[in-house]
Amino acid sequence: MKVSNLAKALNTTADTVRYYTKIGLLHPQKSQLNGYMFYNAQQQQRLSFILTARHLGFSVKDITNIFHETDNNHTGCKLVRDIIKQRLVEVEQQFLDAQALMNLMKQAIGEWDHLPDKTPTSQSICHLMDTFSAMQSQIPPTKSLTETLSSTKANLAETEHNGEMHENK
């Protein structure tokens, strides 16, 4: 089947099919008559696996590693289990960090609701941040929140860099 047919069959975009072909995760056959790429049932199965794995939080590198195993007639299941367990740990930590951030935001709102608005000065852009910063300096910083934000930014950068925004119709 052609790119557009494969994309339609798996409810994704032709750009997504082309992307995974370009990076070598899909291996279509090229027609000698017209130069079109044709994808057989095995390639449809690979794309289905890719889309499911991406939906579950697997990175392109993870999928490449899994295909390296399976393309060499080794099971990929152990690697899939290991990756999903690691992703679950990461997501649980991100959830806890998001809850901590939410509580911090609620605390800020609670404090700021009772304070007046003030014009900026040479020492302060917005006194609300200054009062909150002063209070927060008495509490040790949450390293995992910083790490989580960095990790999330890195994941978003990888997704944008890899052109995977095409996966969603």
From TrEMBL:
Protein name according to UniProt: HTH merR-type domain-containing protein
Keywords for this protein: DNA-binding
Record carries keyword Transcription: no
Highest rank taxon of the organism: Bacteria
Gene3D superfamilies reported in the protein's UniProt record: 1.10.1660.10
InterPro entries linked to this entry: DNA-bd_dom_put_sf, MerR-type_HTH_dom, MerR_fam
Occurrences of domain HTH merR-type (ranges): 1-69
PANTHER family noted in UniProt: HTH-TYPE TRANSCRIPTIONAL REGULATOR ZNTR, REDOX-CYCLING DRUG-SENSING TRANSCRIPTIONAL ACTIVATOR SOXR
Molecular function via GO: DNA binding; DNA-binding transcription factor activity
Signal peptide bounds: none
Keyword DNA-binding recorded: yes
PROSITE patterns: HTH_MERR_2 (PS50937)
